[in-house]
Known about the structure:
One of its GO terms (molecular function) is hydrolase activity. It contains five helices and 18 strands. By secondary structure, it is α+β, with helices and mostly antiparallel strands.
Amino acid sequence: MLSVIPNPPRVALPIVGSDDLFPVRRVYCIGRNYAAHAREMGSDPDREPPFFFMKPADALQVVAGSETAEHVYPPRTENYHFEVELVAALGRGGRDIPAEGALEHVYGYAIGLDMTRRDLQDEAKRLSRPWDLGKAADGSGPVGPLHRAETIGHVAKGAITLSVDGETRQQGDLSDMIWSVSEQIALLSTYFELQPGDVIFTGTPSGVGPVRRGQTMRAEIAGLGAITLAVV
């Protein structure tokens, strides 16, 4: 049996220290997972339960760690925002995964950006509509090389920063997460049967803001290096 159209390529992340690739299945994202960011977005982190949204897997942009990648400014927006995030990639899946054992399901970690058409997201919020047009633009999930957990351990603390043209815009610590990586995995597994290849964008610290064509973003997480993107 033949496919009636060409099979679309599957996004796969490079793995540090290996020629192998990590194929991506689904992309989950948690919203407002750092208290200061929740407040800057007008929410109360002490009273708001966690919530998730999704990006298409083919919205990811694979970024080599040592090179400056070109990042295309998407259409239909004049307010395109950066959000630097730790990305956790799952090597094992399951349902109703207990939080105390959830990190055993993590294959590795990477630096990611949840790029957002903020004007479209704000309009969706105002009209109580889904966030897809704001969050799921082509290339809206740049991700760097994957660092295996068996090599670096599980990333729970350390600086997470983003600069634009050399000026620091976002600065926080992974330990500031409201919901830890293990808690996110456990909660997601009550809604979905998680599978190998699923990745989770784990939230962004405060300082999110717009980027313009011609500017260069550099995202860094302690222990994971950095990725650099020139907006074109």
